[in-house]
Design brief:
Rna Polymerase Sigma Factor, Chain: A, Arc Repressor Mutant, subunit A
């Protein structure tokens, strides 16, 4: 009878490399931390840019705040979740803190979008449609936009959104319904 060996779990070289970079960054290796930044910043910027209503300067401030928090907390990162998930949560929290700090003073005008849209990592044959969607999203009231982005784009559950935005679950659902209606109306106005 042939003896069979148990299967060796598949090792993910990218995950191993990232863990090595985290260990090096914790040990004070700035080059390793810069690599982590370059690896994760583009996607995080797209998320915070949406949450900040397309306002580039605010999005960049939120991203910088998230990476400053990450630098301070990195020694305590236990790899219970992926680094990407952990950084994503820090970035969203930083953007939501920006939203809370402004108390809804973000302007609801297409003219308030700063400069060019950041690279969102999506290549699509309908780039004009994507740009229209991003512009319409930027015009939504801040809390409605935050709920829509967190729920429909980022996949958060209403209880997570409610906790993060300090609102009732029912309010999160109502804001999502409102945001979707406003978005449909604004996209209809752009055609």
């Amino acid at each position: 009878m042939l003896e069979t060996s148990s299967p060796v779990p598949f090792a993910d070289p990218a995950l191993d490399a990232e863990r090595c970079m985290v260990r090096a960054a914790v040990a004070g290796d700035m080059a390793a931390y810069e690599q982590l930044y370059r690896l994760h910043a583009p996607r995080l910027l797209a998320v915070v840019w949406r949450l900040c209503g397309g306002q580039q300067a605010r999005a960049e401030d939120a991203l910088q705040e998230a990476f400053l928090q990450a630098w301070k907390a990195l020694p305590g990162f236990r790899h219970d979740s992926s680094l990407a998930t952990w950084l994503h949560r820090l970035a969203v929290n930083a953007a939501l803190m920006e939203l809370r700090a402004r108390h809804g003073t973000l302007h609801d005008s297409l003219d308030d979008i700063d400069g060019e849209l950041p690279e969102l990592g999506v290549r699509d044959r309908c780039a004009g449609t994507e740009r229209d969607l991003e512009r319409a999203l930027a015009t939504l009231p801040p809390r409605a936009r935050a709920v829509l982005v967190l729920h429909d784009v980022e996949g958060w559950k209403h209880h997570e959104i409610a906790e993060q935005l300090q609102m009732a679950v029912g309010s999160s659902k109502a804001q999502l319904h409102r945001a979707r209606g406003l978005l449909r109306a604004r996209l209809g106005d752009m055609t």
